[in-house]
Amino acid sequence: MRKKSSLFICLLFCYSCLRAQNFTVKANLQPVTISGFYSVNITPQLSSYTTINFSDLRIADDNNKFVPYIISSKKPSFATGNYHKLPLLKNDVTGSGKSQLIIKNDAGSKISSIALLIRNAAVNRQATISGSDDLTKWFTINENITLEDISGNDTDRHVQTISFPVSSYKFFKIIIDNKKNNPLNIIEAGSYSNVQHTEDAYILNPLPAFTQIDSSDNITYIKVHQNAAYHVSKIYLQAESPKFFDRNIDVINSANSLSAKLSSENTNEITLPAFNDKDWEIKIYNGDNPPLKIKSISLKQESKNIIAYLQTGQHYHLLLHDSTAVAPVYDLQNFKDSIPATLPQLKIISFENISPATIKNKTGLSAAWIWILIISALTALGFITFMLMKEMNKEK
Questions:
Q1: How many CA atoms lie within 13 A of 347 on its CB side?
Q2: What is the pTM of this model?
Q3: Sign of the four-CA dihedral 39, 44, 49, 52
Q4: Tens digit of pLDDT for each residue in 14-37?
C-alpha cells in the first residue's frame, strides 16, 4: 500500500510539473510612477502572441510574480438617459426557423435605430427590417444586417443596435435568420435618441495579402494571408467590378465557417467570431454572373485593453505565447465597479523572445529545474513500477 501511495504522489508531482508555464515572448512596459490602476492597449502586434481568449497572457513584476488583471472591451457607449423602451408585440420563431419580432413605435416618432436587449451568445446572425402602418402591408427598410457575436461583456446580456434610414412607421418587423439553429434570447426592444459613439470599438490590423482564383465551378476562391496571427473580428471587402452585385459568401477559418452576403448596396463589412489564423479562405458564389474583382481586404479586431493595479518602484512586463497556459481567474473581476472610468495608459516599450528556461513559475523554480525534477520523478516512477511488477510476479 505504501508503494502505491508513493506511485500516486509521483504521478501528481509529474502532472504539476508538466503544467509549468513556458511563455516564449516578453513585452516590457513603461515604468510605473504612481501606484494605482493602469491600462495597457492590446495592439495587433500584442494580440498576435496570444490566444483568442487571452489565456496565455500574464502581467509579472521584477520577481516574475503574477499580478491580477482584467480584459476590458472598448465598446461604443451611448447616452443611457436617451433610451426609450418600445412595446414588443411579437417575439416568436416561424415554421422556417427564423425569429420574428414585431415592435410598435407607439409615439410614431422618427427613429433611425432599434436597440435589442439580448442574452449573451457567441454567434452571428443575419437580419432584415421592414416597416408598416397597419400590420398588413410591409415595406423593406434594410437587409443583410449582421448581428454581432458579443460574448465577453461584464453581464450576461448586451445591447445590439440595428441602424437604418430614418423612419416613422407605426410598426417594425425584424426577421433574424437562425439557419436551423436555436434562436437568440431577445428580452426587450427600445430606441436611442441622439446616439453618440465615444470611441471606435475596433482597430485596424496590418493589411493582409490575398490571391483570387476564379474557378470554372462559378466560385471565386480568395486565399488570405496574415504576416502574424493577428486577431480578426471584422472583414471589409471592396469590390472593383461589376458595378452591381449581390453574392453569397463563406468565410472559412480553423475556428468556424460563416455565411454572409456581399452587395453593391452595402458597406460589406462582415462581423464574425474572433479568430487568429494566418491563412484562411473566402468563397464567393457567383452563380451565372461574372466573378467579382476584389480590390482590397481590410481586417479589424475588437479594441481591448488590460487593466491592473500596479505598484510604484516596480518594473512590469507581459508574458505571452504559451500553448499550454490556462486562463487565470482573479478576484479583481468582482471589483470592476471600484476601477476608475479613466485610467493612465502604460505603453509597451519592446517585445523580445525569451527562453522558457529563463521564466520562473509561481514556485520560483526555473523551467530548467522543473525539467530536472521531472526527469528525476520519472526515474523514481520507473523504479517503483519495476518493484511493483516484481512483487506481483512473486505473489503469482
A1: 2
A2: 0.65
A3: positive
A4: 444 444 568 999 999 999 989 999
The pLDDT tens digits for 248-307 are: 999 999 988 888 888 888 778 888 889 999 999 999 999 999 999 999 999 999 999 999
50 close to 57: Cβ distance less than 8 angstroms: yes
Alpha-carbon separation of residue 256 from 156, 181, 186, 294, 331 (angstroms): 23, 15, 24, 23, 32
Segment 44-102, tens digit of pLDDT: 999 999 999 999 999 999 888 999 999 988 654 444 446 788 999 999 998 888 999 99
**What does the DSSP assignment read for 352-370?**
EE--GGG-B-TTS-BHHHH
| CATH architecture for segment(s) 85-192 | Sandwich (2.60)
Residue showing cell 513559475: 361
What cell was used for 102?
A: 414585431
What gap in Å lies between CA 105 and CA 84, rounded to an integer?
Answer: 10
Instruction: Sketch the domain layout of the chain as residue ranges.
Output: 21-74+304-364, 85-192, 202-302
CA distance 6 to 2: 6
Rounded alpha-carbon distances, angstroms, from residue 111 to 38, 86, 107, 135, 267: 39, 12, 10, 18, 21
> Torsions phi, psi of 10, nearest 5?
-60, -40
Which alpha helices (DSSP H) does the chain contain, by range?
Answer: 2-18, 44-47, 367-395
Cell, residue 193: 435618441
Calpha distance 341→344 (Å, rounded): 10
- Is the CATH code 1.10.10.10 the one for domain 202-302? no
**Cβ atoms within 10 A of the Cβ of 98, count?**
18
Across-strand partners of 147? Answer: 125
Residue with cell 480584459: 71
